[in-house]
Amino acid sequence: MGRPGGRLIMCLAIPVKVIEVGADDTAIVDLGGVRKEISLALLADVQVGDYVILHVGYALSKLDPEEAEKTLALFAELNQAGMAA
Amino acid sequence: MKYIDEFRDGEVAKNLALSISAAVEPGRSYSFMEFCGGHTHAISRYGLSDLLPPAIRMVHGPGCPVCVLPIGRVDMAIDLALNHGVILCTYGDTLRIPASEGLSLMKAKARGGDIRMVYSTIDALQIARDNPAREVVFFAIGFETTTPPTAVAIQQAEAEGLVNFSVLCCHVLTPSAISNILESPEVRQWGTVPLDGFIGPAHVSTVIGSRPYEFFAEEYRKPVVIAGFEPLDVMQAILMLVRQVNEGRAEVENEFARAVSRDGNLKAQDRVAEVFELRREFEWRGLSVVPYSALKIRQKYAAFDAERRFNLDYRSVPDHKACDCGAILRGVKKPQDCKLFGTVCTPENPIGSCMVSSEGACAAHYSYGRYKDMH
Ligand code: SF4
Question: Do the domain assignments include residue B277?
């Protein structure tokens, strides 16, 4: 990148869905509709269907859908309260 | 995209702001430091400071890897490219960092240095495979998120016998930087940076876990809330911090539980421990020399250490005299306090490192906030 005022590429990390697990610690993920090969050298036990946080070509951690739901539920509650007020 | 869009909902953000305002105790003010440049970016980009009540002040921290890289380290990379004839591979973010003699990696490239931007260490290894007759050096910078990929690259190079590959290691450690801020004389004695709590890094914490922050909470009595990088994550973390302060608690809480556990990513930690060891000291831009705050390559992998291989010495170079990056990185000054801000120093022509990307406080304020001060 290096675009003035842009975000640092090495700080960008996004949740992506694993669509294939390949040989040699690699996987194919869906990156906004585009298939991309990434490395699983840093993350154990990745399965097809998992969401992982992708960072500079490597999966860095798994995303826990239940925990994500809990956080979103908290926000939903807040919205209800906000609308009621 | 899933797990991104839901965390950017403007309505929820407004409701979170209302909850924060309601939680703020009258007559009390709250200063929180967001350590990470990613949070600085989110706060500026989504105008979160405008949503927050005036009692809450967000202080930008030193967690932008480009901002804390001292000039002397960029000089080493430029020296490799211009005087040792190597192919220097780097994340694109480092290209514009101002170095000595008005140079930057970008300008060194224009002078004929073979400097190549890579997205991943995987690409740097490929360049080494494709150019067996050339020396290929990866300029490795960043916190705990970029360190494991560098470790993988070094182990991979060893496994393949890629003898023309080496790494200029400039990886730094988040917990050391936080201690340094908490122990700096400004914070301890003068109280010029009255920090009431920290927003803990998102992706760094996926690797190191939440456990390392427990020490800060206990030792310095400061609440820490680890937060994701989306705007709702940041707002929710601020709400959690306000509640902790009100209740007199100083705990580590985890807003980013969807990706961060207490122990972090053990596989990544093992890789890092295998390849790197602590450096006795490392100079940071803004924090000066901080003991045991960075990593170097272990003796076992010495063949892949560009500092050893090319006999490089680190030379400390002072920042531009008028640049206030140092004070800004410690949370003591704001970008607007710098005389060069927005006139001499702009993202197009950065004088200091805080103006290079919008993770840096100066560029974030320039890109998203500078006009707000006018009315
Ligand atoms: S505006 Fe430029 S010169 Fe001033 S502190 Fe920020 S980066 Fe340094």
Answer: yes
Domains along the sequence of chain A with CATH = 11-84 (2.30.30.140)
Q: Which chain B residues are within 8 Å of A56, Cβ to Cβ?
A: 91, 119-121, 145-146, 149
Residue B241: C-alpha distances to residues B33, B46, B101, B353 (Å): 11, 20, 44, 29
Count of the separate structural domains present in chain B = 1
As a whole number, the mean pLDDT across chain A is 86
Residues spanned by the domain of B285: 71-173+263-309
> Choosing among A56, A69, A70, which should be mutated to test the B contact, i.e. which has the most B CBs within 10 A?
A56
Which conformational region is residue B331 in: left (phi greater than 0), alpha (psi within -120 to 50 degrees), or beta? left
* pLDDT (mean) for B295-316: 97
Average pLDDT for chain B: 91
The answer to whether position B165 is within a domain reads: yes
Is B148 inside a domain boundary? yes
Atom 7 in ligand 1: which residue has the minimum CA distance?
B352
Quick check: A51 and B37 CB within 8 A? no
Q: Which ipTM value was assigned to this complex?
A: 0.90
